[in-house]
Amino acid sequence: MYSPSDISLFVQMAIGLLFLLYLYLLRVISLNTKDLQQALALAESSKEKQLPHRKSLNDLSSHCGTVGCDAILRSGLDEYFSSQKIAPDKATTMENVQRTIQRTLDEEVDRLERNLPLLTTLGAISPYIGAIGAMGGVYDSFSVSDKEEHFSRETIEHIFAGASLSLMCGFAVAIQAVIAYNRAIARIEQLRKHYDVFIVDLIGLLQRVA
C-alpha cells in the first residue's frame, strides 16, 4: 500500500516548495488580474459612452475611463500649458507634449507589467524544482534500498511514483504561470490600444486649440 510516508525526503521538500510557490503564484495572479480587469472594464465602459467626435477637452476628460488615461490627460495638459508659457511656438509645444505623453504611457505600461517578471520566473523555475526533487528522490530511494538483495516491484513503484509526483507538481505550477502570463499580456495589449486611441484624440484636440 502506497502512502505519503513512502515518499523520499527530497520529493517531499520539492513538493512543499512548489506548494508555497503555487500559493505565491495565486496571490500574484489575483492582484494582477484585479488591476487589469478593473482597467479593462473602465476602458470598455468609456468606449461604449464615447462620442462620435470628441470636440473639446471636456468631452475627452469625461470619457477617460481609466487611471492610465487620466494620468496621460493630466500630464499632457500640464506640459501643454507649461510649454505655452515658456515657448509659445506650436511645433515646440506639441513636441514637448508628445514626449511627455509618451513617457507617461511608458510608466503606465510598466505599472501594468510589474508582476510579469514574477510570472515568468515562476514558470521557468518550477519544472526544474520538480525535476531536482524527482532526481533526488530516485537517488535517495536507491541509496536506501541498496542494502536489499533485490528490489521488489513495490519498491520500484514507490520510487517512480514519488518522482512522477514531483515532476507533475513542477509542471502544474509552470503551466499555471504561463497561462497567467499570456492572459496578462493580452489584456495589457488591449489597454495599450485604448491608450493609443486616447492619445491620438488628445493630440488632435491640442493641435486644434494651439
The count of DSSP E runs of length 2 or more, i.e. the number of strands, is 0
**What percent of the residues sit in helical stretches (DSSP H or I)?**
over 70%
Give the overall silhouette: rod-shaped
What is Rg? 27 Å
Tell me the major beta sheet: none
Q: Averaged pLDDT, please?
A: 79
Number of helices: 6
Tally of separate domains: 1
Low-confidence stretches: 48-53
| Strand residue percentage | under 5%
- N-to-C order of helices and strands: HHHHHH
Q: Helix/strand-derived class?
A: mainly alpha
Q: Give the termini distance in whole angstroms.
A: 81 Å
Fold blueprint:
Blueprint: H1 9-48, H2 57-62, H3 67-86, H4 90-112, H5 116-145, H6 153-209
Helix pairs in contact: 1-5, 1-6, 3-4, 3-6, 4-6, 5-6
Tags for this model:
single chain; 210 residues; mainly alpha; 6 helices
Q: How would you portray this structure in words?
A:
With 210 residues, the chain is an all-alpha fold. The protein has helices spanning 9-48, 57-62, 67-86, 90-112, 116-145, 153-209. Helix 1 packs antiparallel against helix 5 (116-145) and helix 5 (116-145) packs antiparallel against helix 6 (153-209). Mean pLDDT is 79; it is low at 48-53.
